[in-house]
Design goal:
thiamine-phosphate diphosphorylase activity; magnesium ion binding; magnesium; 19 strands; TIM Barrel; binds ligand LCLJCK34; alpha/beta; UDP-N-acetylmuramoyl-L-alanine:D-glutamate ligase; kinase; 22 helices; binds 4-methyl-5-hydroxyethylthiazole phosphate; 2 domains
Length: 541
């Protein structure tokens, strides 16, 4: 009698033949994926009659068997039995777990789709071997009947599971850009995802072997860290390496021209749009809820700036944050004047409660205030702290609490992912003499974050794997990508130093124009950043 196979859930390929690139044959594509490190395969055929389904399953199993990788059949117990597949995956509307177990016996694997804590608990008590938690994000592969969970929703399910003996994968909208974020943010207190289940980003890849290597490398990186420490410890990377990454990424913004949707304050709309253009990204400054929804489907990043508080705009911003999260887009929040008035305190509290941010970036007064460390604002101007350890604690605690990257701008900028804190030391005092320089820093973070999300209408991310291979190796294997995004503020700070040095700059008015020019010049010749950038890690207890 066969025994239940040991399964490695790291990279679970769920098939969808209609997504194959032109000229790719299914079984050859599958074999490349297995060579690239796929550890589990699910044959998912929604429209195939029984006999051709069995034929395909048999051919698929011949290949998976050669790679020692288990084959799971989606929905169809009869097909699984016919080819002696290693297991079956069922959803909430399919045959029940108990019925499947009766048919296929105790030594086969059963996976169950879950979307909330109750479904997870039922599946666990019913004896599921693994849970497919999703959809994490919006996906065009499957019509979703429920709102995507977001990373927070996945984490809530994982946490509620405690130490239950069941494996977990996340599914839905997972691509190479959002995998590090998903893995890092869901690894808490010893519980973590065991892997990811991916359809389109692998099935539509023109370089499936490399794509799978990249995915598997990222997932393993986080799973291994978690196994060692309970919560993954992020390394303090060599700052020289970080600077080289910035230099490499700068031109990709212009190459890709990603859309960066801003809902920002009345004072800085024009400067924020021009800074976006100067870096080679494409600004759109739209506030209507209908626009917000459509744009989320094509957006590279969402920049939200609460400088002009107004109820309609606040509602649009909350909607924009939520819509963009369901599409897996980075959302960057600038809590302008967060603690300046009672109204702003209420509004910023609402944002933090209702939205999931990738990055929160504010001045010292705002960040200290949100972190409960006594920050003050005079109007929207910062009244900060000269004490580096207070600044560092504030960014770190806020980042940990909201599970995102937090940056505090000022003479020195402090950035944290909840563990590490880095100080960026470039910048010029004239920045404080023009309005909206902090908002411009938020825009710069948005442009860099967007440049890694190569969304094209109607195309899946998998088509851009060539570019991804370069980026993934630089950004994903060692670090949480969003952390590096924030270090890109360095680019603006260096632009301010270059602008201030110019002979034609006589004061704030000329400085403002020169700043945009220097940002533009840096975007064309980023090597200048190499000798100019100054950043250092802080060692905190
Ligand atoms: C690993 C994994 N997780 C979830 C699903 C979704 O299954 P289901 O809800 O049954 O939807 P369909 O895949 O049948 O459309 C899955 N297939 N795999
Ligand atoms: C089958 C399934 N179940 C929940 S989301 C999903 C589709 C995931 O596809 P993709 O990886 O292309 O987003």
């Amino acid at each position: 009698m066969s025994v239940k196979p040991q399964v490695d859930y790291t990279l679970y390929l769920v098939t969808e033949r209609s997504l194959l690139p032109n000229g790719h044959e299914f079984l050859t594509h599958l074999e490349s994926c297995l060579k690239g490190g796929v550890t589990l395969v699910q044959l998912r055929e929604k429209n195939l009659d029984t006999r051709p389904f069995i034929d395909l399953a048999r051919k698929t199993k011949e290949i998976t068997q050669r790679y020692n990788v288990p084959l799971i059949i989606n929905d169809r117990v009869d097909v699984a039995l016919a080819v002696d597949a290693e297991g079956v995956h069922v959803g909430q509307d399919d045959m029940t777990l108990a019925q499947v177990r009766n048919f296929i016996g105790p030594n086969k694997i059963i996976g169950v789709s879950v979307n909330n804590v109750k479904e997870a608990q039922d599946a666990i008590s019913g004896g599921a071997d693994y849970l497919g938690i999703g959809a994490v994000w919006f996906t065009s592969t499957k019509k979703l009947s429920k709102k995507p969970l977001g990373v927070d929703g996945v984490q809530a399910i994982l946490q509620a599971m405690g130490d239950a003996n069941v494996q977990t994968v996340a599914i839905g909208g997972i691509n190479q850009q959002n995998t590090p974020q998903l893995m890092a943010k869901t690894s808490v207190d010893g519980r973590h995802l065991d892997g990811i289940a991916v359809v389109s980003a692998i099935m539509s890849s023109t370089e499936p072997e490399q794509t799978c290597k990249d995915f598997a490398g990222v997932v393993r990186h986080y799973v291994n860290k978690c196994a060692k420490s309970g919560t993954p410890i992020q390394e303090q990377r060599d700052t020289k390496e970080m600077i080289e990454n910035i230099i490499k990424l700068v031109p990709t913004i212009r190459q890709k021209g990603p859309l960066v949707h801003h809902i920002t304050n009345n004072v800085v709309i024009n400067d924020n749009a021009n800074a976006t253009l100067a870096l080679g990204a494409s600004p759109i400054m739209a506030t209507h809820p209908e626009d917000v929804k459509d744009l989320a489907a094509v957006n590279g990043a969402m920049v939200l700036n609460m400088g002009t508080v107004d109820e309609t705009i606040t509602n649009a911003m909350v909607l924009a944050a939520q819509e963009n999260v369901t599409h897996g887009n980075p959302v960057i929040f600038d809590p302008v004047g967060a603690v300046a008035t009672n109204l702003r305190k209420k509004v910023s509290a609402r944002f933090l409660q209702e939205c999931e941010f990738t990055v929160i970036k504010g001045n010292a007064g705002e960040i200290l205030g949100l972190a409960g460390k006594g920050g003050k604002s005079r109007g929207v101007d910062s009244v900060g702290t000269d004490d580096e350890s207070i600044a560092a604690q504030a960014v770190r605690e806020l980042a940990k609490k909201h599970k995102c990257v937090v940056g505090m701008t000022g003479v020195i900028d402090y950035i944290s992912d909840g563990q590490r804190v880095i100080a960026l030391e470039n910048g010029h005092e004239l920045m404080a003499s023009i309005t909206g320089s902090g908002c411009m820093a938020t825009t710069v973070v948005g442009c860099f974050a967007a440049s890694k999300l190569f969304r094209k209408l109607g195309h899946s991310i998998g088509n851009h794997c060539g570019v991804w291979n370069v980026l993934i190796s630089d950004f994903c294997h060692n670090i949480d990508t969003v952390f590096t995004d924030h270090a890109f503020i360095t680019t603006l700070n260096i632009a301010s130093e270059l602008a201030a040095k110019r002979e034609d700059v006589q004061g704030p008015g000329t400085f403002r124009s020169a700043l945009i020019d220097e940002l533009y010049k840096l975007s064309k010749a980023p090597e200048t950043i190499r000798s100019a950038a100054r950043m250092r890690w802080l060692d905190l207890v």
